Amino acid sequence: MAFSTAAGLVLGFAIDRVAGDPRRAHPVAGFGSAANRLETLTYADRRSAGVVHEVLAVGAVIGLGLALRRGGIIATALATWTVLGGTTLARTGNAMADLLEAGDLDGARALLPSLCGRDPEVLDADGLARAALESIAENTSDATVAPLWWGAVAGIPGLLGYRAVNTLDAMIGYRNERYLRFGWAAARVDDLANLIPARLTGSLTAALAPVVGGRPGAAVHAWRHDAAKHPSPNAGVAEASMAGALGVQLGGRTQYRYGTELRPTLGEGPAPTVRDLRRAVRMSEAVQAAALLVAAVWAVRPSRA
């Protein structure tokens, strides 16, 4: 079983590298539609209702994962491909850099929503580069490192369960009027699910900083001194370590469609440029590959039971 899991993770990662996200009928989109329908039945402006929603939605997906465990390497590979988003993330980051280098701000603004929820209409070229870079940093953990980690720990149920948790957080884990209480459980479960993966991402980013001409010590320094200032206990680790590795400063005034936030600054150095965005993509790809190695080794480790 351990070898089957490790081999499935490697094969699924390879499929993602070749094909990217499924182009049609993406299972994650299907889960999102099902979760929306479930919300019409479970919604109430209470934390308890949100807990019920989380248990039903995530529990159903984990149950599906348990049923698929007998599928061996192929089932694990397909589940891994389904939940990974690292290749599409890197391709989108490079596409954003291409548009910015060509001076196509309209095209860059149209592309930004596929990376993050910022308001692209108020961003100039540097603002678009920073928004894309911060998304690359955070989603390196969410889209690849975390699912690989949970796949190594719990096989197909871990892969699918993590993606369900992360998707629900993206759907309802907001502090707005509708979801402040109902989305509380989704946000907290996602925080817990990403505690280890985010720190693995930070560690790998620091270790691999020389890949982009950075220093491991600078990445660790930014992590230790700045990550805790971020409103997310996990995104702060990924973004601060990336800022330190690249030698740039992230954070500051951040404009979303629902309003403006003044985010704490992460790292020391100038604001990121298009060149730094390309460096961030290279770092993301290196961290993803290293995370696969860690996950495969963890999956086949001798049991201590």
From TrEMBL:
Keywords: Cell membrane, Cobalamin biosynthesis, Membrane, Transmembrane, Transmembrane helix. It is a multi-pass membrane protein. The keyword Membrane applies. Signal peptide: none annotated. The keyword Ribonucleoprotein does not apply. GO terms for cellular component: plasma membrane. Converts cobyric acid to cobinamide by the addition of aminopropanol on the F carboxylic group. It comes from the Bacteria. Its main location: membrane. The lineage of its organism: Bacteria, Bacillati, Actinomycetota, Actinomycetes, Mycobacteriales. Pathway: Cofactor biosynthesis; adenosylcobalamin biosynthesis. One of its GO terms (biological process) is cobalamin biosynthetic process. It is found in: Cell membrane. This is Cobalamin biosynthesis protein CobD. GO terms for molecular function: ABC-type vitamin B12 transporter activity; threonine-phosphate decarboxylase activity. Belongs to the CobD/CbiB family.
